[in-house]
Design a protein that fits this description.
The protein is of the alpha+beta class. It contains three helices and four strands; from the N terminus they run βαββααβ. It has a single domain, classed as Alpha-Beta Plaits, CATH 3.30.70.100. The relative contact order is 0.36.
Length: 95
């Protein structure tokens, strides 16, 4: 069953965040993930949630998504993300 990592990001250092995007993308590929959404404009249809920069990743399973997030390969990019942005991240299984 696929799993989706959904991230709402506020970029605080746009220059260094570009470095994060490149290094993070390489790790996503290593774990068999792919980008579904990557920072495209968001239109709110209902409610009061106003996402900033939305990213959605797809992995083959919940366990694979968690392996990516906790991996040594992603540890440095994750640290860079924490330095260059504020983010909220969830993971959810698909159908």
């Amino acid at each position: 069953m696929p799993a989706y990592v959904i991230v709402d990001i506020i970029v605080t250092d746009p220059v260094r965040y570009e470095e994060y995007k490149k290094s993070a993308a390489e790790t996503v590929t290593v774990f068999g993930g792919r980008y579904i959404v990557r920072g495209n404009p968001v239109e709110v249809l209902e409610g009061d949630w106003i996402p900033n920069r939305l990213v959605i990743l797809e992995f083959e399973s919940l366990s694979r998504a968690k392996q990516w997030w906790a991996s040594s390969e992603y540890s440095e990019p994750k640290k860079l993300r924490h330095e260059t942005a504020r983010s909220k991240m969830i993971v959810v299984e698909g159908i």
